[in-house]
Q: What sequence folds into this?
């Protein structure tokens, strides 16, 4: 198998094959030093929030999600569950921010698109899109998100009020911005706004 | 030319004959006239002479006789008598001679009368003498006076008359002769003029008839000889060139011979090389056959490799499916961890420990997801590598096929080359043979060239001789022309022969 320009070093090839075989055989068992490294990293990761936690202040638990290139924080008191987006059914005669409905444990759950409400770029759903079901103001609905980063605890004093640049509905639904530039959403205010009330007559 | 010459000869002969005839006629006429004139003159002269002599003689003798007689009468001496007798006899003879001589008819009777009277006078004189002798002087004187004197006078007068007649006659004869002579002279002049004119015409014609062809011949000869000279000069040049060419050809033949020898050596070398090449090409054919076999084997191996790689690819695909399942599980785990964290957060202080576990589970799920992502990337790489390997194997197979085809073509080429080489070897052998023949042929050619060279040299000498002869001929023509020109006496002034010769030369 030589095409003139490249001469295959068959000994090198045999050595590589041998290394691959060895790697395959030992693939299920991690090396001890690797295990130690993983544990160390994990310990460092988990150690950081404990240092910042101060029992005397109010703590806000946030479910951090990303949507339209921005990170948003949803207070866990509103969050019910995160689910995979499956079988989204579009609903006719609804505003643009209503993507459709999904079957959620036997119930019909409306899925909203905050990008439409907040004027963020992007639309539609992707393969990795997920739905966070929330309950606010007696209403249960789903919010579509790109990814779910996880939960985090933030002291209430470290949540700054919305900046002056936020206007309109954006300011209305924003509770504040953390130091990590996570916009903390006020879902209570969201359900209060007139914009999301679905009251449309179709003749 | 022969006919002309003969004609010219005949013309010359005829012309000369005519001229001769004219000359003869003229001469004959002249001779005739001259003879006649001279005869007449001679006759006349002799006649006149005789007559004159006799007349004068007779007269004189008579006078002498008379005188002697008278003296005798006076003296009576006998010596006068003898004289008288002698002179009387002389006179008589003269008269007789004149009478016999005369040719004039009317003079004859006169002469006869004269003689008769003379005889009578003589008779009377004799009587006188007899009388005297007898002493009768008176009688004698009387007879002399009476008889002798009248007869004598008569005789004298008759003689005078006949003299006059004779003189007149001779004058007439002379005049006749003179007139005849003048006539003959005139005739001679006429004939001479005619002869001169005719002779001039004939000689002009003959000369012309001779000189004109001669001129033409000389001119033709001059031009022909000039042409011969030119031709021989050209021939000499041609022969010289031929000699040079022969020289060059000889040199070339030598060179060709050397070349042919070199060719023979080369052909021998080529034949040996071709023989070796045939062996080498047979070896090459064996190698090509082995190469074909190797190519076929290589192709088979390549196909096996491709098969194996395809199997590997399918297995990688199976791994991909497994990985998808694992990824799904990781996703589910992640969601579960998030939900657990939410629940833990709702539980507040009680859920703290649970939150840690949930975070741990989420981290694990994340790691699993990342691991599956890496595996998926590896699988993609494997897929690409597999594709590349299969394509490479395909190319390898095709290359093997190509190599096989090439090897077969090479084998065919080598086979053809072997045939060509065999033919080349044979051709080289033939070239060798022909080169050897060529060498032999060149030797023969060199020999022939030498012969040609000799012949050429001889030819050149002969040409020189011919050229010289032509020059001589030309000179001859020139001289002939000059001769003819001189003989023609400027008759052909319009085209002067010397010019014509110069032109021709």
A:
């Amino acid at each position: 198998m030589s095409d003139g320009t490249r001469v295959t070093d068959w000994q090198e090839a045999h050595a590589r094959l041998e290394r691959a075989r060895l790697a395959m055989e030992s693939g299920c068992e991690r090396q001890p030093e690797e295990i130690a490294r993983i544990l160390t990293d994990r310990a460092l990761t988990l150690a950081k929030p404990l240092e910042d936690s101060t029992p005397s202040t109010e703590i806000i638990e946030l479910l951090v999600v990303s949507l339209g290139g921005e990170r948003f924080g949803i207070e866990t008191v509103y969050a019910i569950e995160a689910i995979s987006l499956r079988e989204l059914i579009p609903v006719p005669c609804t505003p643009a921010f209503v993507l459709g409905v999904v079957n959620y444990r036997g119930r019909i759950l409306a899925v909203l698109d905050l990008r439409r409400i907040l004027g963020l770029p992007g639309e539609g759903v992707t393969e990795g899109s997920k739905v966070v079901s929330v309950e606010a103001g007696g209403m249960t609905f789903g919010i579509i998100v790109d990814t779910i980063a996880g939960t985090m605890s933030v002291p209430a004093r470290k949540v700054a009020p919305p900046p002056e640049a936020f206007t309109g509905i954006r300011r209305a639904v924003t509770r504040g911005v953390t130091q990590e530039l996570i916009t903390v959403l006020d879902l209570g205010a969201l359900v209060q706004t007139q914009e999301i009330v679905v009251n449309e007559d179709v003749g | 030319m022969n006919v002309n010459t003969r004609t010219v000869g005949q013309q010359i002969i005829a012309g000369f004959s005519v001229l001769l005839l004219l000359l003869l006629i003229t001469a004959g006429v002249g001779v005739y006239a001259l003879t006649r004139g001279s005869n007449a003159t001679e006759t006349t002269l002799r006649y006149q002479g005789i007559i004159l002599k006799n007349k004068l003689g007779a007269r004189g003798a008579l006078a002498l006789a008379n005188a002697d007689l008278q003296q005798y009468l006076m003296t009576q001496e006998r010596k006068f008598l003898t004289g008288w007798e002698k002179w009387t006899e002389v006179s008589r003879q003269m008269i007789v001679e004149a009478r016999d001589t005369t040719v004039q008819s009317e003079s004859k009777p006169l002469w006869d009368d004269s003689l008769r009277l003379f005889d009578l006078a003589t008779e009377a004189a004799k009587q006188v003498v007899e009388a005297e002798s007898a002493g009768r002087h008176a009688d004698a004187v009387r007879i002399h006076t009476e008889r002798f004197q009248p007869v004598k006078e008569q005789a004298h007068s008759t003689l005078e008359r006949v003299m006059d007649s004779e003189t007149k006659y001779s004058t007439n004869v002379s005049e006749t002769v003179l007139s005849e002579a003048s006539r003959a002279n005139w005739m001679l002049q006429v004939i001479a003029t005619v002869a001169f004119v005719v002779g001039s015409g004939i000689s002009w014609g003959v000369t012309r008839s001779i000189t004109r062809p001669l001129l033409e011949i000389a001119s033709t000869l001059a031009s022909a000889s000039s042409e011969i000279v030119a031709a021989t000069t050209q021939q000499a040049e041609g022969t010289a060139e031929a000699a040079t060419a022969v020289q060059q050809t000889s040199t070339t033949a030598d060179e060709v011979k050397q070349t042919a020898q070199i060719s023979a050596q080369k052909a021998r070398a080529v034949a040996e090389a071709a023989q070796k090449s045939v062996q080498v090409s047979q070896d090459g054919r064996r190698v090509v056959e082995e190469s074909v076999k190797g190519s076929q084997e290589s192709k088979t191996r390549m196909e096996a490799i491709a098969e194996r790689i395809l199997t590997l690819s399918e297995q990688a695909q199976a791994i991909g499916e497994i990985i998808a399942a694992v990824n799904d599980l990781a996703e589910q785990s992640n969601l579960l961890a998030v939900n657990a964290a939410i629940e833990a957060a709702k539980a507040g202080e009680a859920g703290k420990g649970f939150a840690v576990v949930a975070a741990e589970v989420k981290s694990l799920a994340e790691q699993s997801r990342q691991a599956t992502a890496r595996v998926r990337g590896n699988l993609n790489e494997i897929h690409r590598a597999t594709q590349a390997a299969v394509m490479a194997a395909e190319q390898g197979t095709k290359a093997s096929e190509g190599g096989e085809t090439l090897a077969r073509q090479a084998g065919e080429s080598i086979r053809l080359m072997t045939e060509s080489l065999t033919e080349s070897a044979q051709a080289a052998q033939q070239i060798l043979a022909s080169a050897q023949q060529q060498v032999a042929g060149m030797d023969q050619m060199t020999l022939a060239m030498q012969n040609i060279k000799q012949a050429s040299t001889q030819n050149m000498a002969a040409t020189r001789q011919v050229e010289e002869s032509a020059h001589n001929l030309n000179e001859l023509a020139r001289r002939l022309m000059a001769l003819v020109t001189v003989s023609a006496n400027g008759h052909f002034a319009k085209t002067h022969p010397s010019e014509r010769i110069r032109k021709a030369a």
Remarks:
- The two ends of chain B are 22 Å apart (CA to CA).
- Confidence is low (pLDDT under 50) at residues 490-498 of chain B.
